Amino acid sequence: MFLQVNHLEKVFQTRFSKEKTTALSDVSFTAEEGEYIAIMGESGSGKTTLLNILATLEKPSNGDVILENKKISAIKEAQLAEFRRDHLGFVFQDFNLLDTLSIRDNIFLPLVLARHPYIEMVERLEALAPKLSISDLLDKQPFELSGGQKQRVAIARALITHPKLILADEPTAALDSKNSDALLELFEHINADGQTVLMVTHSSLAASHAGRVLFIKDGKIFHQLYRGSKTPREFNLDIMSTMTTILGGK
Ligand SMILES: Nc1ncnc2c1ncn2[C@@H]1O[C@H](COP(=O)(O)OP(=O)(O)OP(=O)(O)O)[C@@H](O)[C@H]1O
């Protein structure tokens, strides 16, 4: 199995009070290589906590995460940065581009940190740029780009390391509807090329482009839906209906 998430529990305790918050109480699921999974749930249900644990930015209180037979929840602190850089790609809601670097250098950055030869960086970017429609943007600075363009650059930076897994946290939240639609289509194309993607989102429209949607409620997986042969528009109706059940059950 490509990804196994086993009985994850995460309890936060603030340093100054004894109060505990259980963000995840028992989350288990598996994913195959090449899947595109969306994670939904109401605000505070633990979506970001789950993504952060998968990203090795947060350690679970209990349970483990196994990616291609490696228990990533147990990687030692000193090896974490390297693991993330070599195996995971991140796409955030606010793009996280460095303002002082050109677009090209922003995209090269993870490969520079991993000490890849320059010629290889150029070759990888030449293969990626046309697919993401960013070939004309490479010599610009981030402030010269629109939100949609910035997010395509962020996706290039995530893909250029050939990561095992792309983790996306609300990637369309800062985009208008036209740019959101374009980005969601792009994620579908990237996934169709074989890239495994896991995305946290509030938006049923965004989730409707995934192949499977996991719903979190009360720190557990409450339900999951497979898209099958449905169009995003048809799948969106199923997703909205499940979200209504989740919110109605309060
Ligand atoms: N570092 C932290 N310390 C204490 N409590 C935390 C911490 N991070 C998250 N929590 C709590 O854990 C619960 C889950 O938070 P999380 O951010 O994972 O939810 P979410 O589903 O991503 O919410 P949203 O959709 O609003 O972003 C919340 O009750 C939150 O207050």
From TrEMBL:
GO cellular component: membrane protein complex
This protein's UniProt keywords: Amino-acid transport, ATP-binding, Nucleotide-binding, Transport
Coiled coil residues, start to end: none
Biological-process GO terms, alphabetical: amino acid transport
ABC transporter domain: residues covered: 3-243
Taxonomy, superkingdom: Bacteria
Database matches in PROSITE patterns: ABC_TRANSPORTER_1, ABC_TRANSPORTER_2
Protein's UniProt keywords contain ATP-binding: yes
GO molecular function terms attached to this record: ATP binding; ATP hydrolysis activity; transmembrane transporter activity
Family per similarity comment: Belongs to the ABC transporter superfamily.
Name of protein: ABC transporter ATP-binding protein
Classification of source organism: Bacteria, Bacillati, Bacillota, Bacilli, Lactobacillales
